[in-house]
Amino acid sequence: MSDFTLYPAIDVRDGRVVRLRQGDYAQETRYADDPLELASRYSAAGARWLHLVDLDAARAGGYTLAPLLDELKRRTRLKVQTGGGVRGEADVDALLAAGADRVVVGSLAVREPGRVASWVARYGAERITVALDTRRDAEGRWRLPVHGWTEEGGRELDVLAAAYDEVGLRHLLCTDISRDGMLSGPNFDLYRYLCERFPRLRVQASGGVADAGEVAVARASGCGGIVLGKALLDGRFTLADVIAEQTPC
């Protein structure tokens, strides 16, 4: 499974593990798990990476999870890609200094792509994950909302993905917002399209995973990895089960 990465996800709001329905802060499900304890269980189950999201920072700015990130790095073997509220180089520097292996850049990657593209060169392609979270409009165009998915960013997925591909981006996390937290299955047509058009990118599928079999479909679609959130939290399958089912292609 060396060419495909599982990213169990922990979204944190007010210090608690939560999941949002389609990115709506008013539709929040809270879980009893402590973020550090949950991450430790994922690590013990065989996870190599963790996707950690600061939901408070995603809306208001100012990353708040540095103490948690420090604990994660000291107490587990997990590599961590994390984001929320990244507004400039100082934020990237701070997250890397706190132990992040990759910094996830979302809204700023849509609003100021030239600036974020320069970070790929400055920090290296393995240190930046661009998150292009997308929603299809009435005309069938894949738009890119920003600011915790509460505002329209005015750009299209195809155009921006192409621009980042040209500057050497390696890791692209793409969430179909309509599937996020819905357990309705990922948008595999979207991921197949992205992987075929941009074969140099390691696309991370995100949103809608409901059963373990969909992990294999994501891999067969050409994705470099998949983010697993609500389905794990709700016990639809275990991380250990998914890891055991994966075999090298």
TrEMBL record:
Keyword flag Isomerase: yes
Q: Which SUPFAM superfamilies match?
A: Ribulose-phoshate binding barrel
- Where, per UniProt, does this protein localize? Cytoplasm
Q: What's one GO BP annotation on this UniProt entry?
A: L-histidine biosynthetic process
Give the superkingdom in one word: Bacteria
Per its UniProt record, what CDD domains does this chain match? HisA
* Signal peptide coordinates: none
The active site of this protein is located at 11 (proton acceptor), 133 (proton donor)
Q: Pathway it acts in?
A: Amino-acid biosynthesis; L-histidine biosynthesis; L-histidine from 5-phospho-alpha-D-ribose 1-diphosphate: step 4/9
Give the molecular function GO annotations: 1-(5-phosphoribosyl)-5-[(5-phosphoribosylamino)methylideneamino]imidazole-4-carboxamide isomerase activity
Annotated EC: 5.3.1.16
> Belongs to which family?
Belongs to the HisA/HisF family.
Which protein is depicted? 1-(5-phosphoribosyl)-5-[(5-phosphoribosylamino)methylideneamino] imidazole-4-carboxamide isomerase
